[in-house]
Amino acid sequence: MHRKALVAPALVAAYNRCMNAVDRVDQLRSTNPTRRREKRLHMSVFTWLLDLSIINAYALHHHLNETSSASITLRDFKRSIADMLTRNEKRLQQQRMDEKTLVRELVRARPDELTDMKQKLETLNGKLGKLLKFQLEFHVLIEDSEERSYALAAALDYKDESVQDGFFGLLLEMVVNKLKG
After folding, report:
1. Which of these, 69, 123, 141, 158, is most buried using a 10 Å CB contact count?
2. What positions does the domain PiggyBac transposable element-derived protein occupy (predicted)?
3. Pair 113, 167 in one domain
């Protein structure tokens, strides 16, 4: 009963040395999954790769910041990555919403309120400053030719002034869309 020492291949030795890391990755992936129920195989593979990439990045982050007293959890790490990836789109979406809200305010505004909105316009976009000038000029034209605007409303068979404001609002939105290109 003689035993001979066998030399294990390098691949087997490397696996045995890092076997615990594989189990740890599986454990982290099972407790913080990104997976969704998918019928498409390529999406399942994508979420699996996404999980592995994030776990590897988390391990590197944790290894580089070992001395840090406040260690971040994997869930918080994933959340910070998601926030960083979506930050620019959230900012653009908020800016678009601010512009839409401003257009609605401009449509409903009286001529004396328009000068108060000038500051809002300057902070949002330079193109909207042209819109303010246009609306002020338009209000002046309406006030100067009040009879013609009422005649137009009468010709269109509309008697109340809210319809005229609706026409103005429609015209104003068309101008905003044209300015945005």
Report:
1. 158
2. 8-58
3. yes
Does some domain include residue 21?
yes
CB 97 within 8 A of CB 73: no
**32 and 62 both lie in a single domain:** yes
In a domain, 137, yes or no: yes
What is the rounded distance in angstroms from the CA atom of residue 139 to the CA atom of residue 87? Answer: 39
- Indicate yes or no: pTM above 0.70: no
Q: What domain range includes position 168?
A: 88-181
pLDDT tens-digit readout, 114-130: 666 666 665 665 555 66
Q: What percent of the chain has a predicted confidence (pLDDT) above 90?
A: 2
Residue 75's Cβ-count burial label (10 Å; 0-12, 13-18, 19+) is exposed
Residues 103 and 67 in one domain: no
The tens digit of pLDDT for each residue in 19-48 reads: 777 677 777 877 777 766 777 888 888 888
For residues 126, 130, 135, 141, the Cα torsion angle rounded to the nearest 10 degrees is 160
